Amino acid sequence: MVMMRMVVVLLSVMMVCVLLMDATVESAAEFDPYKVLGVTRSASQSEIKKVYKRLAKEWHPDKNKNPEAEDMFIKITKSYEILTNEEKKASYDRYGQTDNTHPYGRGHHGFRHNFYFDESFFHFPFNNKGGRDFANSKYTLHFSQYVNEVVPDSFKRPYLIKITSDWCFSCIHIEPVWKETVQELETLGIGIGVVDVGYERRLANHLGAHQTPSILGVVNGKVSFFHYAVVKGHLMQFIEDLLPQRLVEKVTDKNNQEFLKSWHKLNKPHVLLFDQVPSVPLLYKLTAFAYKDYVQFGYVDQGLSETADLLRKFNLNTYAPTMLVFKEDVEKPADIIQAKGMKKHIIDEFISNNKFLLAPRLVNQKLFDELCPVKQFHRRRKYCVLLITGEEESFSTGNEAFLSLASDNTNDVLRFAYVYQRRQQPLCDVLLKNKDSTLPQVVILERRNGAGKILYKPVLGGWNGSKEDKHKLLEELERLQKDPSILNCDAVLPELNNELTSMFLTRWIYTAYDYLSEIIADLLHNNWREMMPLLSLIFSALFILFGTVVIQAFSDSSEEKQPKTKAKEASNAENGSPHTSSTSSRPPKKNFVEVTELTDITYTSNLVKLRPGHINVVLVLTDSTKNILLSKFAKEVYSFTGSLTLHFSFLNVDKHSEWMAAVLEYAQDAVQIDTDEEEVYSCKVDYTGYVLALNGHKKYLCLFKPVYTGEDLDSKPEEEGGGSRSRKGMTRSRSTSLQIHHKLDRLGLWVERLMEGTLPRCPSGERG
């Protein structure tokens, strides 16, 4: 009996041990660090670390009030500890367990002892709403994706991008508004992006975003920042403001014909949207932006009395938005669509089917590639019927007949187009080579590859638009459908000239205007961090400019005054006259003499409108003596350039001899000029070297006559201003022997007397 009890106890103990072992094994089997972190066995250390950060912030007991948060956090920490330790990870991969017998560590360890921190734990966010749930999974942008996809696509549609980070409480606050706005903008075709600064710092710096949250828009590759309160209405208006101006033209009864008839100049179809709202819908603006290179868009407000005639003309239902597309015929729409709730895909399909005119003009290579694509093996052949014509009025009959034929075409395989020979000369030279070049001509061609190779066949006999020409062309097209081998000529076409380059200046002006507007907006909203490079450039330029002016103003130091005085004394000594100081002139502030020409254009500004007290010193010269006299004149008056009341000019007597003679005749009595009357009016008097000091306010003049020095510099010269003078015959004989460079030898002394006010004056009258 005792033995039986001992056996029962022993069996009970063994069963308990087995159950405990099974529980341990089961518990160990349930703990899988890979499953806990949700990673694969091939996950890299960086991936494991990233997942650990996300789960640790989600299950942190201080932030997660779930009763199981503490146990889950311990599992996450232990799993991270195992998978980041090479030995423990290898042991688990091989044996399914680590050195510890329990999945959570030894029995005496509690929560506090097993709490694990790595070096970056204190950078964890508190929650997962900052930007990694809704937006990041679908709209996350990377640097290469932005450069290669977003920027090129921004020329067709705008992008709205949010800059966020994990550690961002403001990002949580704007998230509901952002989600609601994004859902509506996506239906309009607007691109959405989210940049997480923690993972894409390079892209954030590239965009110029230095704080979170930030919202910005990208259009035509240009970045613009959103500066208002984050509400749906502001974000929608921001997108609308991103779009270029002048995308859609307002059309009324007055300008509708002008708008529709511009198809020939713009080489585009025209689309009119009729709706009852006063402002252009955003969806229509976005469509106009996407197809701006193909179609011209206009908007008609049905609620205005100025559009009543248009509504009656096209018999439209005013209860639903309507779109009409016009091509060459401005009286009848080529296509129409009407629906109450127009969706983006419906509008896109409508516009895509009407991107080209019935017979557009080939204005660049891009249009040629789209209208007449290269033959593809998996597609049907496309043939281009090309009219080579001219712009003159004499070609209008043939052009209209060609357009009429294109309008009747219903075959999708055929595309009609025309070129002006003068604007696409290289293309026409290839197609008309060794053929009758009399315009117009029609050529049927098929493009074979992207390098320009074509097969073509000119239609013999030219084209004048007659019934016979139409019949002959239609017969050729029917033969082509049955036998493509009739295109028996081949050639390599050059790239087409871009006829739209003349619009570059206009586009540049619009771009500059938009750029200046953006700068002003940034200044108004105090976006100083983004404006710092531009402001730094502006202030640097102003500093350099201001510094240059200041340096030039004070460049004449006191040390320079003495050498200049000595130079002046030496010059006077060479001229044989003592030096006389001038107390009325200041040291010059210039290192050059500014001399302007006195003409009928500058007469008023240089003489008539001179301020009181200002005098214009005018040197009289000819074309042959201009260089010599101006050089001598500059040397003589250089020391007086510091005076603010003196201005220096020269008068070409070859052009204005009559004016010179008239002035001297009027002042003859005052200055006692002894010139022969016949010589004066026959323009034979030599006025070269004369200098006039003209006061336009008080209307008087002082006269300097050339001084004769000859070979003997010590000989007595004539007095300035008509003082003592020799006989008339002697003066005339001596003037022929005057050397040009000696005529202004005494001009410096004369200017000094002018400044002192000791020269005789004579009235100059009102002559001009």
TrEMBL record:
<dbReference type="InterPro" id="IPR052448">
    <property type="entry name" value="DnaJ_C16_autophagy_reg"/>
</dbReference>
<dbReference type="InterPro" id="IPR018253">
    <property type="entry name" value="DnaJ_domain_CS"/>
</dbReference>
<feature type="domain" description="J">
    <location>
        <begin position="32"/>
        <end position="96"/>
    </location>
</feature>
<dbReference type="Pfam" id="PF00226">
    <property type="entry name" value="DnaJ"/>
</dbReference>
<feature type="compositionally biased region" description="Basic and acidic residues">
    <location>
        <begin position="561"/>
        <end position="571"/>
    </location>
</feature>
<feature type="region of interest" description="Disordered">
    <location>
        <begin position="561"/>
        <end position="589"/>
    </location>
</feature>
<dbReference type="GO" id="GO:0005789">
    <property type="term" value="C:endoplasmic reticulum membrane"/>
</dbReference>
<feature type="region of interest" description="Disordered">
    <location>
        <begin position="713"/>
        <end position="738"/>
    </location>
</feature>
<dbReference type="GO" id="GO:0006914">
    <property type="term" value="P:autophagy"/>
</dbReference>
<dbReference type="InterPro" id="IPR013766">
    <property type="entry name" value="Thioredoxin_domain"/>
</dbReference>
<dbReference type="Pfam" id="PF00085">
    <property type="entry name" value="Thioredoxin"/>
</dbReference>
<keyword id="KW-0732">Signal</keyword>
<dbReference type="InterPro" id="IPR036869">
    <property type="entry name" value="J_dom_sf"/>
</dbReference>
<feature type="compositionally biased region" description="Low complexity">
    <location>
        <begin position="577"/>
        <end position="586"/>
    </location>
</feature>
<dbReference type="InterPro" id="IPR001623">
    <property type="entry name" value="DnaJ_domain"/>
</dbReference>
<comment type="function">
    <text>Plays an important role in regulating the size of autophagosomes during the formation process.</text>
</comment>
<keyword id="KW-0072">Autophagy</keyword>
<dbReference type="InterPro" id="IPR043361">
    <property type="entry name" value="DNAJC16_TRX"/>
</dbReference>
<dbReference type="InterPro" id="IPR036249">
    <property type="entry name" value="Thioredoxin-like_sf"/>
</dbReference>
<keyword id="KW-0325">Glycoprotein</keyword>
<protein>
    <recommendedName>
        <fullName>DnaJ homolog subfamily C member 16</fullName>
    </recommendedName>
</protein>
<feature type="signal peptide">
    <location>
        <begin position="1"/>
        <end position="29"/>
    </location>
</feature>
